[in-house]
Amino acid sequence: MSLIASDLSVGRGGRPLLEGVEFSVAKGTALVLRGANGIGKTTLLRTLASLQEPLAGRIEVPREDLIYASHADGVKAALSVEENLAFWAEIYGRPLDGAVFTTFDLEDLRGRLAGTLSAGQKRRLGLARLGVAGRQVWLLDEPTVSLDRASVAAFEAVLRAHLASGGSAVIATHIDLLGEADVLELEPFRAAVVPETADEAFL
Ligand SMILES: Nc1ncnc2c1ncn2[C@@H]1O[C@H](COP(=O)(O)OP(=O)(O)OP(=O)(O)O)[C@@H](O)[C@H]1O
After folding, report:
1. Could you say which DSSP state residue 107 is in?
2. 37: CA distance to ligand 1 center in Å?
3. Which residue from 7, 20, 33, 111 has the least number of CB within 10 angstroms?
């Protein structure tokens, strides 16, 4: 197993959002998180990524196996596409494999300042960090936002190759990505709303 969540509760701003979440993700497989806007998909991913503490429960995953791709692309606007990838390669202590430019369709944009990229190009650059980092467990928050159909298909192929090589992924997405992946519906884990109570007013 590459990631196990047991009786996990997560919240935002001191308010519980999801309670008793249970799942495991085996090597070579992906889990798709589904749920309405605001249910807590991002919060769950942030918790899995150790960016915030769980309210309760346990997460089992080696920290060094993880990489989190958030809504924000994490792109440095003042650096070129190639410099961005070289920067990340250094951060992750890996050689920069030139194949990543082809995989994420960035070959023609190598020298471009990242700040001048279109939203979809910027997203491809942000996702290319996954190809550079060499991490086993990908935590992906709406990875296909801004991507055109061809880019979505290309990213799906990247995901499949990652899984085929023994990697795994947890993906929050509203689109039908990786049709064969397990799906976790979060609605049953929605935390009960605790009604606000008030004492009698001082009159
Ligand atoms: N920094 C914050 N402080 C307080 N509450 C927050 C904060 N960020 C998000 N929230 C709230 O936490 C709840 C869960 O948000 P989250 O982003 O995890 O949902 P989501 O399922 O990913 O939604 P979406 O499908 O819209 O991306 C929402 O009600 C949101 O308004």
Report:
1. G
2. 8
3. 111
* Any domain includes 118: yes
What domain count does the chain have?
1
In three state form, how does the secondary structure of 35-98 look?
CCCCCCHHHHHHHHCCCCCCCEEEEECCHHHEEEECCCCCCCCCCEHHHHHHHHHHHCCCCCCC
Edge-to-edge strand ranges of the sheet holding 56-60:
15-25, 3-12, 56-60
**Does residue 21 lie within any of the structural domains?**
no
| Greatest extent of the chain over all pairs of C-alpha atoms, in Å | 73
CATH number at residue 44: 3.40.50.300
CA distances from 42 to 72, 82, 97 (A): 12, 29, 30
Residue 2 inside a domain? The answer is no
Tokens of 31: 């889990």
Host domain of residue 86 = 28-51+62-179
Q: Residues 30-54: pLDDT tens digits?
A: 999 999 999 999 999 999 999 999 9
Pocket test for ligand 1, best of 8, 9, 10, 12 (most atoms within 8 A of CB): 12
Residue 20 placed within a domain: no
Q: Burial of 149 by CB count in 10 Å (0-12 exposed, 13-18 middle, 19+ buried)? A: exposed
The residues with which 33 forms a beta bridge, in sequence order, are 172, 184
pLDDT tens column, 109-145? 999 999 999 999 999 999 999 999 999 999 999 999 9
